[in-house]
Amino acid sequence: MVSCKQDLKSTEKDNPFFSEYKTPFGVPPFDEIRVEHFIPAFEKGMEEHKKEVEAILSSDEEATFQNTIVAMDNTGKLLNKVAYTFFGLSDANTSPELQEVQMEISPRLAGHSDEISLDPRFFERVETVYNNMEKFDLNDEEKFLLENIYKELVREGAALDPEQKEKLKEMNQRLSVLRVEFNQNVLAETNNYVLEISKEEDLEGLPESVINSAAEEAAARGLDGKWVFTTQKPSMLPFLQYSKKPKLRERLYNAYLNRGNNDNDYDNKEILAEMMEIRADRARLLGYETHSHLVLEPRMAKEPANVYDLLNTLWSAAMPAAKNDLDEMQAIADREGDGIDIQSSDWWYYAEKLRKEKYDLDDNELRPYFKLENVRQGAFSLAGKLYGITFTEIKDIPKPHEEAVAYEVKEENGEHLGVLYLDFHPRGSKNQGAWCGSYRDHKIEDGKKITPVVTMVMNFTRPSGDKPSLLSLDEVTTLFHEFGHALDALFSTKTYGYEYIAWDFVELPSQIMEHWVTEPEMLKSYALHYETGEPIPDELIEKIRNSSFFNQGFAKGEYLAACYLDMAYHTIDSETEVNVPQFERKTMDEIGLIPEIEPRYRSTYFLHIVGGYASGYYSYDWAAVLDHDAYEAFREKGIFDRETAQSFRENILEKNGTMDAMEMYVNFRGREPERTPFLRNLGFLN
């Protein structure tokens, strides 16, 4: 774990970034890295990078693929080494000291990147190589990369005049600062709020395991004899599902909804408004109608109209389904004499009652069969069946946090494939949600294969008392989802550091893994009762399958509402002034979102859209069309068919980012994707 002590002045001698890692598989020496190492390492990394780039750009040799594209790919090794480690830790194990470093270094890195990408000599050399592509005997990967490098430079402003470039640099640096401020505010708001309960009667309806976890959380905060719930989802969602106290449900849910919207030091309204306005101005400066037009150009969707076509198709089916569920839930509330009109904070409570009534299925019936360790092993075993790979725990290896667990991943023949870290539980130093990242990517360097170091980071239910971590079905699905991203990174065969993954294709490798979660044969292999070891009974499997369409109107409705919000922000023109609460309300009113459902993410904590998913949150459903259609190939030949899996690995996972997305998909499936399987599996087709 990274030390936060700053009592030693960092020197090149004691800074681990300045020497080759002497660790198993060359992973970062997390136990040796201190906060004060980062700034000197970043500064030296940028200095070295500038010198390396200058040597390339000042060369009198005619630009070629080798002396320009490959040469640039081989620059910045120290800078990349530091950045991969720093940003991985900033997301998963931050501290006030790391946050200070992030605030200082982010605009400097943005400026450094712009200085290179906007250098006219760089664009001139790339353009020369691009215009003479046929002279260089390039393979398919190299042609794809060259075309994308050239077009990306244009989208990033390489063709602007000097005055416009300076304006663009200012915008990029300001956006980098705003992004850090926004993220840090959300983390602070999440950590600062607790629902403190001191009366036992206020726990009515909550399962024993939830009560015990809340007592442990309270004790950890020095509140012995009380119970604490937070806006972290493993704490909040069970409370919303089972608490019989509507006012307490409302208080907790409102705290979640209003993170970044409390008119305090962590308020994000003005930050987000400024970001959206800068992005609109930036897009216009770059010659695009809106930010959405700019970022969608290299993706499968290509333009906003195609995104809205998909969203509108799904919305027209989701809202009637949600309204029907609401009517049935209101009938339950009326029948039980609760005397309330269902509000958004009540949805989970009455949805759980409706599921119990219609399908005789209770989330608490399932959790005993989803012990975290068994679910993890289920994912590993599935990868073994499909691809023949193995996972062996590595005990003596540096870790990004003491709770992380490391595994060596090997091919069927025993060849080393990569290292995988798993980090499962929430803590104050970790961002919300779940994600998969890398501390090192695959590439070929001087003829040698550099293997990836991948990390999966989640916020799953912790063990409580004498009970292990027992997951909800949603958490099980999340583990398989992130594991799909990990396989994508582990199987990569890319030659260069460059990669150009279409953002609306990026979720295919992850979402296809979700399909195996509830397959009866899979469930029998990993869903084992944590006390008896007995596999999940057939009647529970049948209930899971029968309830697969349950609550899809709500789930799809809240997600699509967030997609519309994302698209609305990023299709404003450069003349629009954004008032965040009014803008959000207007957008929700225009699509007809019912008041009993809130968008999955409201504006002031919508981390996706301040990061890589700007005008891209729709990508999950764009990719869902792909993954549902792709899984049909497994259904046709058997869900564990090795030949189909090998084709998916060779055509999708190994080549992702080095080939056109649709071309990869057609190579696997034999045709372009169809929407029908996705709509059918949602229950939106008769």
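(the above was protein one; protein two follows)
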Amino acid sequence: MFVTNDPDTASRPAIIMMPGQGEQGTSDTNKLVAYGPHYWLNHGWDGGLQLGNGKHYPILITAAYINNVSPTAPQYYTLLTYLLNTYHIKRNAVHFTGLSQGAMTTGELIKFEMTAGAETGMKLVTSFAALEGTPGALPSPYNGWDRDTVAYKVWAKKYGGKYFYLEGSGSDNFRDGWHYSVAMNDTLPGCAYFSYENLGGGAHCCWNSMYDPNATNWTCVGTLGPNNAPSQVGKNTMGTYFAQSSIFQWMLRQGDTSLVGVATPSPRVVKKVVVSEYRTWYYLSDSTIWGYNNSSAYPVQYAPPSGRKWCFVFGGFNIFNALDDLGYVWQTKAFNFDITTNTYRVDTDTTGGAFSGNIYVDGYSNAILTIRSDSSIWYGGKDVYSLFYPGGSTVTSVGQVMKFTQLSPAGLKFKKVVCGGPGILALTTDGKVYKWSNGGSKTPTLYSTPRPAIDIFISALNLQGCIIPDVFGSQTMGYPYVWGGTTSMYGGGPAYSQPTSIKALWNITVPIKEISVDWNTIHYIDSLGRMWGCGFNSFGEVGNGQEFVNKYYYPGYPGYGWSLINYENPSGIPVQIKPGTLFKHIWSTTWFGLYKYAQDLNDSIYSWGRNKALALGNGYGSTSETDQYHPNTLDVLVPKRVTPLTARFTTYNFTAPTLSAGANKTITSTSTTLTATGNPALVISQIRPAPNGVDTVGYWWISYAWTKVSGPNNPTIVSPSSKSTSVTGMVNGTYVFQVLATDNNTGQDTSQVQVIVNQAGVPPTVYAGINQSTTLPKDSATLTGTASGNSGATITSTSWSQVSGPNTATIRTPSSLSTVVAGLIAGTYTFKLTATDSNSQTANDTVTVTVSQPQPTVIEVHIRKGTNVLIITDN
């Protein structure tokens, strides 16, 4: 179970697992290896868990009861106190897990309090991974003060408890573990994971598939992991989980992860990324510095002088400044853009003494500042701030070249200094914040803060700030206080002249662990490892998937390149960057720092922003990056994982974007098909096959939008978001259609096509009605006809007219299908109904109306002879 030289007696983390009811209430020890870590130990797993700093071998315990299938929390507490007092388990790395009944009992442990408010059980638990089991009621008398979800809130906030819960997505998903994740996240956002899973159809089963050490993707938000299911009543939340991590790896990361004993040496990892305007270097855990050397295929080592090693490194104006173990400052050749591995030592200061004993270095433009072992600040290089000599400029990087001179007043001790456009900001060892203003006095200004600061930051623009802990809470982390006029950079309003809290503005609920400010963006990592960012998003440097330059200029190609204007495209208050990944470091520079690097908890490196001159560590270089049109074709808009030490330098040519909606055409039908062709901007390797195996780095269209620009009616665009679409319901006339294509880098282009519809088609069908007759004195008749279009056309007009007749009749509503004709006299009339359709086709039909005179009445009178009877007959 343990690697060589790792003594079993060493204190180490523990993973304690309790199975379900089927494995309880029996003395059969085979039940202990049915599920969980001991099952996998019997199936090829060595018990080791790989984290960023090496392989860990925690103590693995499976606990079950031989006389009880439903153990209670007080019973479990008794067993656990024995285990913790007997074995060398790190008390800040006690990780619990359970399935079904085991999860219920362990969940009750967190609620268990020996007396009201004692918080007895939760004190033992560092993390808890529950598989389909939520806590039930505590036994008497403890149920009298059972705080249920409130206990989980206390566990999260007071003891830093971390929670991971999986629930089946099937019909029996009634356990509602999400109640506890919601309660914890309400108290301490991002501390609890909850997800539905689909193993076994989402049934109450499949525990070993969940515990599988090789099951390392439990992503439950966005693109789901292979065994995750969408949210149902409960909402999936990532908590502190990130892929690629097994459940066991997740548990281990929530506590003390220092390695035990003398294990296999840790792999060489990046300790710091040194960012300058166009150049990037990588400072490794073995104290070596690496970077591209002119056109070297891979980064090469910038070796320290013989017998020395690098101890600290910082970027400048396309140079780096490094400290060796004697505290001397070394630089790549200042002011001459010497892109080689040559480094030069600064031997003496302005007094002629050896300029050694430096412990910290920072810079801006061509000015360099150091802190020496006596905590004093020294200033050298070019006096761009005009602190000692007039005529310096941070904008044009001019200034008197000067040897290093002490800048800080006697008696003040400093632990950090940062440089930016407004001046030089410094932090004393007792938390005071001082500033030397650009073009100001050599005497610094002291700023008023409510409590001692623990960190400081500054931008190239008019923004400065510090991190100050709250009165109650961590004193190694804190919250932002800012001042300066560039308030839109952080989503603010009125400017502050003194450090002012923006904790409420940013809706911060947990303290900041690390903050990084460059030319125009702000990023920070909170205590949960989440990264947040905001600022002026010109080249994707915020990392939220957007940028301003390419998106704005793309439709007007070739205006595709550099056009930085300060203060453009502010993103507002910080948003989370790359959710689901937890970070521990961010690196950038205030001098034209338009790109950033970050490191996650596994020591993986990510970069994003403007990618010029191999700046992002992915090995991609463009031959067109020196002209005005398209140096930004390689921008990266969200953090992308890179391996800079093994990235092969490959040169790419820029290929202009093309988009066509198709050739103009004339059709004789009412429908047509439109198809977009072409490509977005492409960056294609100069050499085929490419040295790095990637021939094309360019973009691809990810969406289309077809619209009608003009035309005689509104036809139906059947698939407006597809590359190819049918258009139906057109009529005769001229149409213009447009397609808008968007690429995966937010670039957009448009193209239009003209379609002329000229169809003869079938004329409309017209019926004037049945022939009619009438007799005077009625001198009117009602005509009722019908008309319908063919070939998809519609009737646009109808008209009645008189063709013949003994006089001219009155047609009261000639444009209606039904009309009265009046003023008729005896004789025969012919009326015509004419209809015109939307294709300008006409047709007609006629109807006759016969008008007759009334017939005379003949009366015969008969007188019957010999009577007085008169008989009248109407013939």
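Reviewer note on protein two: The mean pLDDT is 87.
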